[in-house]
Amino acid sequence: MTHETPQRPAPATRGTGRLVVMVSGTGSNLAALLAAHDDPAYGARVVAVVADRGNIRALEIAREAGIPTAVVSIKDFDDRASWDAAVAETVAVFSPDLIVLAGFMKLFGDTFLGRFGGRIVNTHPALLPSFPGAHGVRDALAYGVKVTGCTVMVVDEGVDTGPILAQATVAVEPDDDEATLHERIKAVEQPLLVEWVGRVARDGLRVEGRHAIVGRS
Ligand code: GRF
Q1: How far is CA 161 from CA 41, 85, 124, 155, in A?
Q2: How many CB atoms lie within 10 A of CB 148?
Q3: CA nearest ligand 1 atom 5, residue
Q4: Does the Cβ of 189 fall within 6 Å of ligand 1?
Q5: Which atom of ligand 1 is nearest to the CA of 124?
Q6: 35-94: per-residue pLDDT in tens?
Q7: How far is the CA of 149 from the centre of ligand 1 (A)?
Q8: How many CB atoms lie within 10 A of CB 91?
Q9: Which of 47, 60, 146, 164 is packed most tightly, with the most Cβ within 10 A?
Q10: Is it the case that residue 198 has pLDDT exceeding 60?
Q11: For 43-90, where are the E strands, in sequence order?
Q12: How far is Cα 39 from Cα 202, in angstroms, rounded to an integer?
């Protein structure tokens, strides 16, 4: 395993939810969470950033913010199940209350979901259940929809199939390409993710069938 040695978990203020953020890319959603987490009223703090690859902007953002990082790369494992178990062990080092997938581009297996299921939140750049998968923006554009957006949801064993926490819409412009549309989606996705991660951290989350419910029961 060539992941960076996980450093000691950063201390979280009492009563503040511990967030482990998982990333694969440019880290704009991570940056939005980091911009929010210093406010004690937010109720959650990023204690670690875990990636499935090195040399990504998201890891630089984490390091610049002084957040411990770890990289667990699938190419260093014989099979997916071994990688899944190693990621679960790495994330567990940081004792998360909530795991936030912020542009994390891998699917978890039974080990990870068995350990952390029900407290993993993901964001997707399309209005689910339309256009799941790795190319949600491209697929929506190719289909010719006039409105798309983003979805914040609880992760289950499927591909972008988990119970939905929140959605926001974005109009598709006639001259949009994948990059311009994704940029406008990210502009609404970041505040939506920040808002709902905070709500879940402060008020708790439960899932009843297709419904993700935030709030104390
Ligand atoms: C986000 O739009 C996310 O929904 C998608 O990839 C993008 C990640 O962006 N899966 P960033 O790495 O947070 O900038």
Answers
A1: 31, 22, 11, 7
A2: 25
A3: 103
A4: yes
A5: 4
A6: 999 999 999 999 999 999 999 999 999 999 999 999 999 999 999 999 999 999 999 999
A7: 12
A8: 22
A9: 47
A10: yes
A11: 44-51, 69-71
A12: 13
Atom of ligand 1 nearest to the CA of 123: 4
Q: Summarize pLDDT for 102-136 with one digit per residue, the tens.
A: 999 999 999 999 999 999 999 999 999 999 999 99
- The label of the residue with tokens 């980091």 reads 34
Would the pLDDT of 196 be above 60?
Answer: yes
- Give yes or no for residue 167 CB within 6 A of ligand 1: no
Of these residues, 3, 124, 135, 182, which one is catalytic? 124
* 124 part of the active site: yes
Which atom of ligand 1 lies at the shortest distance from residue 27's CA? 12
147 CA to middle of ligand 1, Å?
A: 19
How is residue 187 written in tokens?
């502009």
With residue 180 as reference, give the H or E element that holds it: helix 178-203
Output the pLDDT for position 216: 75
pLDDT surpasses 90 at 3: no
CA of 217 to the centre of ligand 1 (A): 32
pLDDT band at 148 (very low <50, low <70, confident <90, very high): very high
User: Which pLDDT score, from 0 to 100, does residue 15 have?
Assistant: 61
Question: For ligand 1, is residue 204 a contact (CB within 6 Å)?
Answer: no
Q: Is beta strand 44-51 parallel, antiparallel or unpaired with respect to 69-71?
A: parallel
Q: What span, in angstroms and rounded, lies between the C-alpha atoms of 67 and 171?
A: 35
